[in-house]
Write a structure and sequence with these properties.
single chain, mainly alpha, about 50% helix
Length: about 170
């Protein structure tokens, strides 16, 4: 594993800084999946969190970006997202049943591209539009900071899971 990652410029504007840090964390998460076998991508190594697999992290982050940007920020339809399906059970947005690593990566890539389009077309001061969520007054700035935090947190989990799966270590 030998990635080439750059942090956002030190003197960038706010939008460039926020999107740069989000993209860095996304790349780290994807990089942690490089070279994994299908079995290793789905291997559960954290006894108290059996859904926290490398593939599970990708699936969860795909649905996290969808929830915050497509559903909460734009006010879009939540019916596709398992996180909003009360009948699916807790942590349904981590499920990798029937999902290959390649599909999880492709779905995550597609959602990141969609998220980038949403971010590029809005102002950091624009406010979330979905009326049914308690945080519907969050602006895009707050949502981006939350996504950086969430993605960074799970990139850290990916560090640990990957090391437990096959011994591979590395930050970036």
């Amino acid at each position: 594993m030998s990635p080439v990652f750059e942090r956002p410029p030190l003197l960038a504007d706010e939008h460039t800084s926020l999107t740069g840090w989000l993209e860095l964390q996304r790349r780290i998460l994807r990089w942690k999946c490089e070279g994994l076998s299908e079995a290793d991508a789905h291997r559960s190594v954290v006894p108290t969190s059996p859904l926290m697999t490398m593939a599970g992290l990708l699936v969860h982050m795909r649905w996290t970006e969808h929830a915050w940007l497509d559903v909460i920020f734009l006010g879009g339809d939540s019916s596709r997202n398992p996180a909003f399906d009360e009948s699916a059970g807790e942590d349904a947005d981590w499920s990798t049943e029937g999902v290959t690593l390649a599909q999880a990566l492709a779905d995550y890539e597609a959602q990141c591209a969609r998220s980038d389009e949403i971010i590029a077309s809005a102002s950091l001061d624009d406010v979330a539009r979905h009326p049914g969520f308690p945080r519907n007054h969050a602006n895009l700035r707050w949502i981006l900071i939350h996504l950086i935090e969430e993605t960074g947190r799970h990139a850290g989990h990916a560090d640990i899971v990957r090391e437990l799966v096959d011994g591979t270590k590395g930050y970036y």
